[in-house]
User: Fold this.
Amino acid sequence: MKTELPAQLPDYAELHCLSNFSFLRGASHSRELIARAISLGYRALAITDECSVAGVVRAFEAVREAKTGNPDLDFKLIVGTEITLNDGMRLVLLATDRDGYGNMTALITLGRRNAEKGQYRLSRNDLAWGCKGCIALWIAGRDAQEEDGRWLAERFPGEAWIAFERHLDADDAERLAHLRRFEEACGLPLVAAGDVHMHGRECRPLQDMLTALRHNTTLDQAGHLLFPNGERHLRTRLQLARLYPDDLLAETVRIAALCKFSLTELRYEYPEEVVPRGMTPGEYLRQETLQGLAERYPQGVPEKVATQIETELALIAQVEYEAYFLTVYDIVKFARSRGILCQGRGSAANSAVCYALGITAVDPTRANLLFGRFVSVERGEPPDIDVDFEHQRREEVIQYVFEKYGRSRTALVATVIGYRSRSALRDAGRALGIDADKLNALTASLAWWDTPAQWPERFAEVGLDPQSPRIQKWLALAPQLKGMPRHLSQHVGGFVISRGRLDRLVPIENAAMADRNVIQWDKDDIDILGLMKVDVLALGMLTAIRKSLDWVSWQRKEQLLFHNIPKEDSRVYDMICKADTVGVFQIESRAQMSMLPRLLPRSYYDLVVQVAIVRPGPIQGDMVHPYLQRRELQRRIKDYTPDDLRPELATALSRTLGIPIFQEQVMQIAMIAADFTAGEADELRRSMAAWKRKGGIGKFRDKLRDGMLKNDYSEAFFERIYHQMEGFGDYGFPESHAASFALLVYDSAWLKRHYPEAFLVGMLNSLPMGFYSASQLLQDARRHRVDVRPVDVAHSDWESTLEADAGHARDTPAVRLGLHRVGGLSVDAGQRVVAARRQQAFRDVADLSARAGLQRKDLDALVAASALSGLSGHRRQAAWASAAVPVQGDLLSALPMREEQPALPAPSEAEDIVADYASMSLTLGRHPMALLRQPLNRHRYLSAAALRALPDRQLARCAGLVTGRQRPGTATGVVFVTLEDETGMTNVIVHAELVERQHKELLGAQLLGVRGVVQHASDGDVVHVLAQYLVDHSELLGSLSISSRDFQ
Amino acid sequence: MDAVPLATVLARSDIWRGDRFADAALPAVASGFAALDRELPGGGWPRGALTELLCDGGGQGELSLLLPACKQLCADDGWLILIAPPHPLHAGALAAAGMPLERLLVVEQGRDKKELNALWAAEQALNSDAPAAVLCWSMQADSKSVRRLQLAAAAGHTAAFLLRPTRATHESSSAVLRLRVQAQAEHGGTLAVDILKRRGPPLTASLHLELPRPAAWKSHGRPHHTTSFTHGTPLARPASAATVARHPSGLAAG
Amino acid sequence: MPPGKAVVEQNRILACDVAALQAGVRPWMKPALARSLLPDIAILPRDVEAEQALLDTLACWAGTWTPRIRVVPHTGLLLEIASCLRLFGGFEHLHDAIVTGLNAQGYVVRSAAAPVAQGALWLTLAGESGMRFDRAAMSRSLDSLSLSALGSELPAECITRLNSFGLSTLGEARRLPHSALTRRIGAAVMRELARAYGEVPDLREEFAFPARFDLRLELPVPVDNAEALLFASRRLVQALAGWLTARQGGVRECSLMLEHRKREATLMPLGFAEILRDGARIEAILRERLPRLELATQVEALRLVADNVLALPGHSQPLFGKDGAQAAAMPALIERLRARLGEAAVHGYAPIADHRPECVSAHAAQGKNGSAGIVPAARPLYLLNAPQTLPERHGRPHHRNEPLLLLAGPERIESGWWDAGESNSDGRPSGDMRRDYFVALAPDQRWLWIYRECRADFDKGGGWFLHGYFS
Assistant:
């Protein structure tokens, strides 16, 4: 092609570029912008998101990777931000050095903290002294005034420029002439800039769509809110040469050279106050570790542990992480001082040091784990310790952290909330002006498991023509919208704590919750920059265990501590093997329960495997069945060792019988079998962890395959490992986490096995948590012969309790349901009732109402729960009596009235059951299904118990209340339904084809009848029914209708 | 309530205003071009009378010439009716020129080009005395129809304009005011206006009116720019953006 | 299967049609579940105002039978018929006539008759139809009513409380000691009960027929055929007839307005040679007129307006500016011009905000106050409907065989991808455009707006086009 090129392409640095972290403005990921800028030969790119640096670490990461691949690359990332002052003045600030960066983040923080979440507000007053160390580009609008330029020139002496941004508007020439006049009048030089909103012109539709969404309008209506063309992209230098005068282009490079700041300069400084005065962090850590060790091993520290401690302390010293361990230690110490149960997990958590410091309970002598190094010297990544706390008391810990380190030094890590399939589809449709009704219908009909490939089918179902141009665009754009960040939210519990002011390290924003602040980076950003975070997480099971233990201690009349629960009790494992695990931590789900009788865990480490195996990684890697087969062999053959385990993999795989189960093992395989270096393996780990952010592990595929084939591994083995890695990308679950979780599995199972009453109380008092409802837990406990007594104002506390009375036949205590089960009763009112009763027993309902200061709704709530039966008889009598009782705030509180009690008939059993469910979501009466046994028998439906007695593959019918429907992501199209009746639960498997055919019954039925084939799991008590036909029998419930647990 | 605004009183032709057209002046609305207003009896476009504008084709600048006055008239709740304009109008540009669109009515030529319809519509509009201004384009108007329009206009208050091709220059006309307008290159794209007929002394010299145009366009229109542009690289062949010449200002297409 | 319909309130289905019932949809379901059962179901929010308006319409219509009517808000109508039973040939005949009349308008009716208004209402609500001739019969029927059937009449809290005592019928409640019950459910509710049984008089206000008849009827689906319009307008005409009866008057003229989406309503004045009250004759006129009506677009609602014969014309004089007095004559002028030249030839402009030049003007029925926002750059006053090709010679665009001088540009316009490939009704061009616009000086000194068509990547030029004249 004959073209006249300029003699030389000009150098260029783009100084004004928004990523998609300028929410609903920028249309490109930082990664795409960096890649394009590098390929165009730019000298530098400034990421200048609007009052934000949230996208800059991703850009930093992309540049770092590009430089790894090409060490000669001359390309610089500039950190900046675009701000619009409240009077309309628009500026881009670029950090020239560390101090300037700190001033900039402080300014962003100021703006963000002055406004509601997601907004910012800055005025000229906030820039009264400029922003030292930052270069300011004035994005002068068409109505810009000279005096604005002079104001800016005074605030940024020698550091302010006027940006001329040319996008082929009609008045480009006039604007340039106009700005040239300012240049002289204000003494501000001109520079070229691009106001880049996307990496390439091809993103224009997406950018238009974001604009329409930002203005809450449709594309058809958006009009001039949209940009008139697609010029706001990274243009070639050839184009730039034609668009801008040479001097303006040269100026960009000059400015870029002035911006010397790099994110690598950010050095994290640990808080100082975790170390007592006069000690170094190292000394103090050693002192506390040794002291803790002595308490852990009163009989003397085992040699092996002592050695390990020394190794670990040396390593910690080498990477200077003492302060980090001490910070976590400090928080854990606080929790323990308050009696708040907590437990650490993560690679660093399972170290001997953490065991000594009480951060974790994984005893190094007991665990046969072969963890890799818990911190890696060459990777320089911060250690990873997540600490779980009792969920009802985590707030105390959070407030402690805020108070101890102060709000200017502490904030939560952000979580980036982005478009997901459904929201992307919805918003893309909204922007394209798809009729709201159709949109609703579509999103309602979309099952959560549908993949984009199935969308066209769903469109057709709601009457949208997938072939129409509009719908085609919808289908094309929704996937592009998916993954775009929408706003920042707070991470569940990741804290950043700094030594100095945190806002000079990273901007801080307001969170949705009052009194919470979040930084603008998420945990991956933190990870990449090597900053430290402490995870303060909430775990319901810890609450339940602590509360159960309190009651066990009460029962045994001696304190039983968390750490003193007897280990490796074979009766506990017997129970687990039978999948009798309703309420037990982690292994209570449908999928877990069906695995238990096959895996047959008999030891702590088996539980570690059990917790990790029912996850996408092992399942997609097709590792489950091979592992189960080898378990079987191991049980049958004494001293079984897998014969095909290659010696070099033994260290990595022998503990799991040669089958990789954990993420750590897969990493080790990559290093051993495919010759990955530690650095490459680490890169692989990051890619697995940050699946969505980095677009998968595809780039490692070839290297992994070549390496493994070269070392004589089979193609099939490679495929499985690769799929497993992909699975970990969806949901990584490392061994280090499983190890900590397995402890809680065992502890909760032990409680359930030996103290089912205390366990039930602990669970009831910790709800909502876990997998089962109060009713299901209660049913299960009663099947285990636990005596449960009803709520009664004469006996119940606010929470559920254990009751032992002399007259009781059994020596085990009974569970007394607490007033907390009473729907609609406020905590305050409930506690007033308990307090008033402690002073004196209630005479009658009027006495109760008066002394507990009850309101009408409290009284009604108590009547509905039948909690007044001790005072006034059955529910209806209680209702009659309480209806006439004067209540708090009643102006007509008359004198006690003499009146005759009319004869009110007692409610029927069914009525009581319905009323129980309505008020408390549970009943102590018979199971509702028991009442329906007769009609069910007529339909030849068997009970869950009867079903269990049937032989494998027998045709049978069963029916029950639908208590759960689940669609695991791993089982293609299958829906698991849990049916409950008075004898237990039945698991029904509905295949995809039947799901499609009997959609209506599957989704609509409260009482579901199933015809199907009985399937026994290999051995054990779990029975499945493979459904062939479904019948909706909800009509049998009649007035018994009870709300089932909702979907998912 | 019934007080007559002073401007209305002053606009009446029978009230002496002390300028040289006084005895001949009709009520008028300022054209927005001072140089022109000085030469028009009454200091502007006459109301209650027909003005004839001779110009060829659309786009000489005739709309820019008339719009300031129309804008003025519509500002007081008056209506503007455009009858048979030679090309469709651009609503955005009209709005940008300050025309309140809610006071604008267009009567299309119609596909069958029934000229008579346009003249009929103009007459109806003038007879009704409803619009404040009427612009009617006609290729075929003859002296008879001009006369009818003038009569209709004279009975009311409407500022009436008939736009005809310049070949009608020498036809007799009963319009009270006749002008010929033409775009011209000199003076950076101005509009040349010749007043052919007015009540008052004849005017022989052409007026050159500055139309509201971005200054940047005009500077490019100067002859030396013309040459610099033409001897640059061809603009579109070979078909590549790379061939576009640098403009002296430093701006070119990308 | 015909698509079903359901009305939703507070995210629960309140009522649904037969098609929906057949698909398994039930009241109290959540809309999402209903949709999964019947994907095409139209879910409509409850429109209380529309319900009330409908009751008012029917009250007018019922004026045909009796002037004493009560509208029970959101519920139904109470007609006092004792005084007119003989006039209409007894209960059976009257009842048949009313029910048939309502059925003809497309309504399904539930009704009951009793000596006490409130009692009749409660029986109706509970589905206990029929006539109770004496108080004793009515009381017996009321006694057996389920409390839950009176959800709209008694406070929910009261019903819940009575249920909590184990009571399920009115009779059971009334058998309890009066004072004890009053203490528990309050005197107000007890008074309601007494009113239903006719133990205390009912003094609530009757329906006041409006002075001016103005009723609007929203059509369930947009309609463009005369037959459907006739059917729908019958409801309004019947109501007018009832209203006239109740007011003991007639009209000489009324107007029917056909409302469209985003367009002015089509007005159809109906004049009668004499003063009329008879609905059938008005209908006959409509049957003549409606089929001849040429509808530009579908009708979304109908409105029938009739002023009292004695009433003065209702509209007020608008305020006029200086030229406004003249402007008052504009509507008549516009009508005259349209009558001769046709609707399409006489129009205003409504500016539309769009970067694509072709899309910025839409014809508006009359002058419209548009909100185009700021026009981004100087635009020509004349914009050609169809851009004209300009030949290119020596790399330059030519107009009338002379080279054009480019004065300004390029201005790049690249927009509109979202409606590409769609045909649209109002003639606006659609689709993605990529153009570089220039201001050019023509040899005849006219200023032109021209553009060069661009390919997707802007590297290859397309042809040149003339698009407008600055004037």
